[in-house]
Amino acid sequence: MGSLYRSEEMTLAQLFLQSEAAYACVSELGELGVVQFRDLNPDVNAFQRKFVNEVRRCDEMERKLRFLEKEIKKANIPILDTGENPEAPPPREMIDLEATFEKLENEMKEVNTNQEALKRNFLELTELKHILRKTQNFFDEAELHHQQMHDPSLAEESHALLGEEGMRPGQAMRLGFVAGVIPRERIPSFERMLWRACRGNVFLKQAEIESPLEDPSTGDQVHKTVFIIFFQGDQLKSRVKKICEGFRATLYPCPETQAERREMAMGVMTRIEDLQTVLGQTQDHRHRVLASAAKNIKVWFIKVCKIKAIYHTLNLFNLDVTQKCLIAECWCPVADLDSIQQALRRGTERSGSSVPSILNRMQTKEEPPTYNRTNKFTNAFQAIVDAYGVACYREINPAPYTIITFPFLFAVMFGDTGHGLIMALFALWIVIYEKKLAASAKESEMWGTIYGGRYVILLMGLFAIYSGLIYNDIYSKSINLFGSSFIVSHANYTNSTIRNNEFLQLDPQTTYTGSPYPFGFDPIWRISLNELTFTNSFKMKLSVIFGVMQMMFGVFLSLLNHRYFNKPLNIFCEFIPQVLFLFCMFGYLVIMIFIKWFKFDAATSSNAPSLLIVIINMFLLTPVPEAQLLFAGQNQLQVFLVLVVVLCVPWMLFIKPIYLYVQNNKRLKLGLQFGNVRMIVNGGNGEDMAEVLQNDSLATTDTDSQTEEDKPKFDFGDVFILQAIHTIEYCLGCISNTASYLRLWALSLAHAELSLVLWEMVMRIGLSVEGYLGSVVLFGVFAFWAVLTIAILLIMEGLSAFLHALRLHWVEFQNKFYVGDGHLFAPFSFEIIMESKEE
Question: What is the pLDDT of residues 634-653, one digit of tens each?
Answer without folding.
Answer: 999 999 999 999 999 999 99
